[in-house]
Amino acid sequence: MNIFYSLISLICLTALSPFTVAQDIQGQSFSYRDWEVHCSNTGTCRAAGYQPDSAQMMPASILLTRQAGAKQAVQAKVALSSDDQALDTKKLKNIHFYLNGRDFGAVNLNTSTQPLIGTLNTQQINGLLQYSQKNVKIVFKNNHYSWQVSDAGMTATLLKMDDFQKRTGTVGALVKKGAANESRVLAAQPKPMVKKVNTAAKPYLTLQPNTEQYQALHPLLMAAQPALQDAHAFCEGIPEDTVAKPQAIEIYKLTNHKVLATTLCWRGAYNEGYGVWVLDESLKGKATFVTEFASDFASGEIRSAQKGRGLGDCWATSQWIWNGQTFVKTQDRWTGMCKGFPGGIWDLYLIEAVVR
Questions:
Q1: Is residue 21 part of a domain?
Q2: SS3 of residue 65 by DSSP
Q3: 244 & 329 share domain
Q4: Which of the chain's termini has less CB crowding within 10 Å, N or C?
Q5: What does pLDDT average to over the chain?
Q6: Cα–Cα distance between 285 and 43 in angstroms, integer?
């Protein structure tokens, strides 16, 4: 079972759960071929394009960021790397940006870091956006190195960005421009503020599957499962002798007579996920489900970190904060496609918040 790709979509969908930050904007993501876009609860959209498969040895990416609201300019970052050897710092001067062979000038790059990270200026960004509906060969090069960013999927991705920010048909659209002004485009929202209430860092009770208390609690937790978006079995436990068996349940004290219950739900090639529920300290009554992708819990904070293809190529991370009454989802972040940048290269958010 490809546990990562079947479950990452569910991590994103938990943005719609009652544990999500109260918001008017629901984050959305979209990917097509070599491009992807993540738009967050603030209205900010971040679109990233990567090198084509024919240029895998020289990873390259462009990140286009645009905030919601009228008259918002697009900002652009660049990442350039090498898959087989370290780049020679003596050969990294005068890297220029080319569109269909036309030189748009030198790129502002920090050549002291690898991968190289830089920015595009206004002329370079506008030049790229002129090709939002056309085929374009995007190249960064000097006399020693050359990188290419694919245009496959760029039009569809930027169209999704326009649609999310309600710019389609307006003078500010990136793809389908129109005569309408931007008076009705999506308004930007500030990052929600969430105050964390500290709780216990260690469990006060561990229940083993063969105990009577476990057998009374486990059905209550399983009854609170979410509506599944695919065919995977919910919190089936870890296989032992080819049979999936439930794991021990740990109980942590929260506040307001509530406790957190957690148990190991699944394990894949590179990942594992714990189920988390909130219920009354009596361990009776209805349990409230939070997530089945938790990696750890401590002091009022649930964290999830799931690897993509290969060892640490890219990551999906989430965070939930206990505010004294409930767990609030304060982060849903993706580091971008697994395209040759170990650990991922960008911070692409569906949910972003400020924790105090």
A1: no
A2: strand
A3: yes
A4: C
A5: 91
A6: 38
Number of residues assigned to the chain: 356
| HSE-up (13 A, CA, CB side) for residue 43 | 15
Other residues' Cβ atoms within 10 Å of the Cβ of residue 170? 20
Paired strand residues for 208 = none
With respect to residue 98, please indicate whether it lies within any of the assigned structural domains.
yes
Residue 277 has pLDDT above 80, yes or no: yes
Q: Is 100 left (phi over 0), alpha (psi -120 to 50) or beta?
A: left
Same domain, 144 and 234: no
Give the containing element (helix H, strand E) for 261: strand 258-267
**Residue with token string 């970190």:** 305
**Do residues 65 and 214 share a domain?**
no
| Predicted local distance difference test score (pLDDT) of residue 231 | 57
Q: What is the pLDDT of residues 161-181, one digit of tens each?
A: 999 999 999 999 999 999 999
CB 155 within 8 A of CB 139: no
Using pLDDT thresholds of 50, 70 and 90, give the confidence band for residue 3. Answer: very low
Strand partners, 38: 29, 46
Residue 153 lies in a domain: yes
Alpha carbon distance 335, 348 (integer Å): 6
Domain boundary among the residues 164, 185, 217 is at 164
